[in-house]
Amino acid sequence: MTPRVIAAATVAATIVAVLGMLWTGGYDIAQALAALWNGAFGTPYAVLSATLVRATPLLFVGLAVGIAFRAGVLNIGAEGQLLAGAAAAVAVGLSVGDWPRVVALPLTLGAGVVAGAAWAGVAGWLKLRFGVLEVISTLMLNFVAAYGVSWLVRGPLQEPTRIYPQTVELSAAVRLPALIDGHRVHLGLVLAVALAVATWWILTQTAAGFRVRAVGASLSAAQSAGGIRPTRTLAVVFLASGALAGLAGASEATGVTFALYEGLSPGYGYSAIAVALLARLHPLAIIASALLFGALEAGAAAMQRDANVPSVLAAVVEAMIILGVLAFERAREGGRRL
Amino acid sequence: MSIDTAEFLQASVRTATPLALAAYGELITERAGVINLGLEGAMIAGAFGALVGAGIGGVGGGFAAAAVAGCATAMLMVLVVLWLRADAVIAGTAVTMLALGLTGTLYRALYGTAGAALSVPTIGPVAVPGVSQIPLLGRAFFEQPVITYVLYALAVALWWWMGRTQAGLALRATGERPEAAMAAGISPRRVRALALMFGGAMGGLAGGVLVLAQVGTFSEGMSAGRGFIAIAIVVLGRWSAVGVAGAALLFGAASQLQYVFQSLGWPVPYQLFLALPYVLTLLVLAGTPRRAAAPASLGVALTD
């Protein structure tokens, strides 16, 4: 089976399973599907203020996870890196809020990038220096980041009135501008698409990209035959993956939430695994995949509103897509290790 | 204000009980060479199973259903990881997502949207005559729900089983060198499948404890990362039965410490204590020379 067939078969199997669940649960399937469609694509508002807004962080984190998996690094800590990025961006954004936008906004986004890279860098350092499995370390760091955000918004960064566990809102200078007046889709989407293209170009057209792919295909072969220093390549991959996830957080904070609070991410870092896998780790396909999942999550919210179908169903769909890709992938003879 | 040490210890053991149950399950799974990140999923499935089971067959039915539900999620891991040979880490993450989503969906479908608080009978602490009178430690260890005593028995049994029996040796051999185990006539795939199912059932029981011995009801996502903490406990306990017991107690105590500091009036953020176990695990891992204690084939797929 070709990659496209695998992806299509997975989605088809998932759709059948979910329809079965809706039917068993006694829901009005037609009404549920109509709500799903309308919530995702039905109106300009659905597309421009729901689907594309959800797809933006998913594209950033999908790239983050995709590039790591490409190099054989199982970074399941995009959630923590995203939170670290959001926290740093808000912290910096609040202190440079009265500076001119051309300086303040890049500084704010940059802080998110650096923080995300640093957060992943801890896991990278632990792996390369002490041999700690990144699966364990990135997972642990997710929780540390979540509690860190909780402490920040109830402690040093809390709004002065100290009523809600959140920061004050960012000023206009450090907000990502909306792409279309009156809609929530923001400049972050353009940035994310540009980065997807850049990632694709780097991976396929440059020596650095070749090294990443070689290390991911076979660490020992890359080292002996290719003259590649895997340690250095892996270090770069950890940092790049964390930087992308950190930017996701910075983009959410400066483009959507305008403040830091505990529920800032509804698990984007975990959805990212589904986004990346469905795209079979191809950066350009991740654009399409992020759009699909953005629509799914936006549609699921509408489905709960209009047809009373629990929106957590979206998590079920994402999980089934991951398992489906894994299953079809493996069913194929001589499949690449993933 | 002084601290009641006996009460602190009792609360620590109470908090440690579900963590230790899940961790002993994961210990067996990892000793067979598989990391089960679906443990968190097994736990939430167990919690939901306990709710449904308790409604049908009381507390006993609740625990039975919890174990079955946890085992069922692990069977999904067996199917995808051992049969279809998918990556265990990614599959485990997906299984957890699936279980969190499914239990949330089913809960709302069966019992209506949140708000309709559903309560099940819980089991209270039972003091063991005699030993519960031992100063300090007596109350901590011997005035607990019955499931905690089951845990003690399981811990001792697993320690003995792993170290002293033929089957325990087969388990450890599978985790260290599956090829060697195969040469000795053991099927590594079968050992791993059984280990996963046992681990899932234990994770399910741990979820059952949350509902049937602690909270008395089910809420979405109530496992709240405890399955992942259990994985950290196995690492912190350096893959030994005794180490896991110690690490579980340490985690239980660390999460209770916040109340001590609160009662002492020390302004230490509680998030620090919540994050402590995870930071501790990272530090211990960094201090462990090159995964010395981990099963050699942990996370390595079988080839044949």
Oligomer: heterodimer
DSSP summary, beta strand count of chain B: 2
Specify the biggest β-sheet of chain B.
2 strands, antiparallel
Instruction: Profile the largest sheet of chain A.
Output: none
Describe this structure in words.
The complex is a heterodimer of chains A (338) and B (304). Chain A has 338 residues and is mainly alpha-helical. Chain A has helices spanning 3-24, 29-42, 44-70, 78-95, 101-130, 134-154, 187-205, 207-217, 219-224, 230-257, 268-278, 283-307, 313-331. In chain A, helix 1 (3-24) runs antiparallel to helix 13 (313-331), helix 3 (44-70) crosses helix 12 and helix 5 (101-130) packs across helix 6 (134-154). The radius of gyration of chain A is 20 Å and the shape is globular. Residues 333-338 of chain A have low confidence and may be disordered. With 304 residues, chain B is mainly alpha-helical. The chains are: A mainly alpha (338), B mainly alpha (304). Chains A and B meet through helix 5, helix 6, helix 11 and helix 13 of A and helix 3, helix 9 and helix 11 of B.
